[in-house]
Amino acid sequence: MSAPQMPQANADVPTLLVKIFGKDRPGITAGLFDTLAAFSVEVVDLEQVVTRGRIVLCALVTEPAGGLEGELRSTVHSWADSLKLQAEIISGVGDNRPRGEGRSHVTVLGHPLTAESTAAITACITATGGNIDRIFRLAKYPVTAVEFAISGTPTEPLRTALATEAATLGVDVAVVSAGLHRRAQRLVVMDVDSTLIQDEVIELFAAHAGCEEQVAEVTARAMRGELDFEQSLHARVALLEGLDASVVDKVRAEVRLTPGARTLVRTLKRLGYQVGVVSGGFTQVTDDLRERLGLDFAQANTLEIVDGRLTGRVTGEIVDRAGKARLLRRFAEEAGVPLEQTVAIGDGANDLDMLNAAGLGVAFNAKPVVREAAHTAVNFPFLDTVLYLLGVTREEVEAADGLLDG
Predict the structure, then answer these.
(1) What mean pLDDT is predicted for residues 19-38?
(2) pTM for the whole thing?
């Protein structure tokens, strides 16, 4: 339960914790407080949870004046019995104990989320000195997503400890600091190839040039961090020399969005977020994606086209590993969003600077070197799963997407 200040009281005032359990139905909460109202008590704290049709309702109230505690207890038990509910009333003093310093949100994603992994995660939280103040399910499909509100331990040590545990358990865990910034306007910037879309754009071009295998090998080595990105880009683009410019429209038609990508962008936009992409690919594709998805920002390399054919060169500023981080900062400045309120999503080694610069860096189905270095990892093939890391529930996603209308 939360810890508000005692109304017109202090920590020495006697209080009663009234707990109600049983089968949920309309009117239980109203009925309890109608019953308590007869004793003129003040409400100090209140929390209710319903799980699979069973309610747990807790009300912390001041002790009634005039020696009426016994009558209050009897009346509440009689009311509960009449509804076939169980009641428990515990005497105490004051409000809840203050929450510890250092507050975080821990989001756990599992498919499935097992008791074993949940036990290990919660034990790890305790071992770091953290206390679990509240647990809330964000989603039940396509993954189970559960959020823990934690106090009593700094965010960074908690994140480090849970990242190690998550890798062992095969679940995804994200740790972000609590605070008003989590609900403030934010900027989300994504990589494109194998993140926003399922494809590597240069490989789509290469297929039309008959050099797909050569390009794919160079791409794989670059993403693993084995080659300098700019050198590998020039080497791959050189293989496209002579392609007719009409291939651009063909490649645009072949691009496949990652499952959940459209939902992610649409939901973020409806929540007031700004969304952008940075890519080591090409503006000939990212400009089209920007228009199709309503993105706020987009930046990539540009294939040079002369006399209706690709020259095998790129023009303008190269978007490489350092360039992606630089563009994240530029987009944040233009959006008026502090860097700590940015989210970056990517899968390759050339995304690492951007992921580390952002307030939250998410490795999406990423290479091992990226998963180990990012703030958190998502290893499910649905891009909208990232929404759960931001505290957005599945019901909110569906409502924003119009699936619950009517």
Answers:
(1) 96
(2) 0.82
